[in-house]
From TrEMBL:
Protein family according to the UniProt entry: Belongs to the short-chain dehydrogenases/reductases (SDR) family.
UniProt keyword list: NAD, Oxidoreductase
Record InterPro entries: KR_dom (IPR057326), NAD(P)-bd_dom_sf (IPR036291), Sc_DH/Rdtase_CS (IPR020904), SDR_fam (IPR002347)
Organism classification: Bacteria, Bacillati, Actinomycetota, Actinomycetes, Pseudonocardiales
The keyword Oxidoreductase belongs to this UniProt entry's keyword annotation: yes
Protein name, per record: NAD(P)-dependent dehydrogenase (Short-subunit alcohol dehydrogenase family)
Domain (Ketoreductase) ranges: 7-175
GO molecular-function term, one example from the UniProt record: oxidoreductase activity
Source species, domain of life: Bacteria
Amino acid sequence: MTDFEGLVAVVTGGASGIGLATARLLASRGARVACLDLNPQVDEPLRGIRADVSDDDSVRAAIDAVVAEFGRLDVVVNNAGIGAQGDVAANPDDEWRRVWDVNVGGIVRVTRAALPHLRRSPAAAVVNTGSIAAWAGLPQRALYSATKGAVHALTLAMAADHVREGIRVNAVAPGTADTPWVGRLLDSAPDPDAERAALEARQPHGRLVSADEVAGAIAYLASPLSGSTAGTVLAVDGGMHGLRLRPK
Ligand code: NAD
């Protein structure tokens, strides 16, 4: 694994789950890391900054604060996301807009605010968190899946727009990952332990993906080790997508 010594990274949704694991990994490799999250509570050496990625003023203020404090910005991990359950009839328009605004609009706003700073970095990278939901045809996840399909398409378009100016854009597509988000879903089931066991059995490798495994993929795509990689979506899913398996 390369090191991020001297570099500054922003991780959205960095106070929990995949984002927190990523922030910790980048910091352990020498980056100074700001976690932009609705919840600004993170442990040292991470720097928590309260930000709502669905609000442009909030995002701009947070990116300005990062650059004022650290003097530069090299890596952006667009990871903040929220879920939506049900078929297309399940979510009223305001809910559709909210999920779109966070999962897709958040990437647009944060990247837009970061671009002038990334253009000055010799090691600029953007990594977006997509999902295998974009490919898998998951039941009862219509809106969420659509936003993640948009994240994958946006990743490709952003890579095309910025690779010639030295900014690489890639994405990860996690399978079901063991994070507080999934913990909350399991806890809402009548028998959480049985639900977890069933969920694990449905994964190709018989267990949930760990947040650290997704963080490792994000760190790779954020690092010069992947210096010739742009516009890719890297699945971290135990083989679900690559093996053309179907979630049961
Ligand atoms: P999580 O709920 O544990 O963490 C998400 C973080 O995002 C939280 O700290 C939350 O406060 C923050 N957040 C939510 N809305 C925000 C907003 N408007 N502005 C700023 N921060 C906001 O979730 P997680 O499981 O770690 O998921 C992280 C990302 O990974 C999401 O984009 C999710 O869609 C994606 N993902 C997760 C899984 C999984 O199985 N856990 C699978 C595929 C993709």
